[in-house]
Design goal:
about 200 residues, mainly alpha, Rna Polymerase Sigma Factor, Chain: A, Arc Repressor Mutant, subunit A, 10 helices, about 75% helix
């Protein structure tokens, strides 16, 4: 019988060593499972996207802890539900569920969550800085993809460009963003940039 947990633990060990392919594999394995759960809780597509972005960025930022996690799926679900219910709490919705989820939360976990939230904010700031430095057309293409949620064919049609031109521009923009982030002393694989950039 196929044991998903053993596969996930192996992926966690590989991600801990900085393996971008393993991160990509984990992402593609879990997004189809996690997205409907978050959407069911938040009822909001943009919030769902933000929560999934933060979840997978947290995986990368916490990669030194990954080899010690015995049940990767439960760990991912805990992050997703914690983020979802935190959002619900801010919206003054579902207080009982939030309170139940909050019970038993350990102090070191809360400290870790705070540190990861700061790291996440820093990454978003660096990405934002890099986007502002893009050439005008590249910036426009990037923002149509990220902020408007347009797909490559839609952007191509709107800007009267070929789909390949749009795709190549997005690839170059991601490379420029990655270079800017790395110049600031951080290391992010392309897949993480894809997650937090929404491209």
């Amino acid at each position: 019988m196929y044991d998903r947990s053993q596969t996930d633990k192996a992926l966690f060990r590989q991600i801990a060593e900085g393996d971008e392919a393993a991160f990509r594999e984990l992402f593609h394995a879990y997004i189809p499972q996690l997205e409907p759960l978050v959407m069911h809780l938040t009822k909001t597509a943009s919030v769902t996207e933000d929560i999934l972005q933060e979840t997978f960025l947290r995986v990368w930022l916490s990669r030194n802890k990954l080899p010690d996690i015995e049940n990767p799926r439960s760990w991912l679900l805990r992050i997703v539900f914690y983020q979802s219910f935190s959002w619900l709490r801010k919206q003054a919705v579902h207080h009982k569920a939030v309170n139940a989820l909050s019970q038993g939360q350990q102090e070191d976990e809360m400290r870790s969550s705070t540190e990861e939230a700061v790291a996440f904010t820093t990454m978003l700031r660096l990405v934002g800085e890099a986007v502002q430095q893009l050439p005008a057309q590249a910036k426009r293409i990037y923002l149509l993809s990220r902020e408007k949620g347009l797909r490559i064919p839609e952007i191509a049609e709107q800007l009267n460009l070929s789909p390949n031109t749009v795709k190549n521009s997005l690839v170059r923009s991601l490379q420029a963003i990655r270079k800017h982030v790395e110049a600031s002393g951080h290391w992010l694989p392309v897949m993480v940039l894809w997650v937090i950039s929404g491209v």
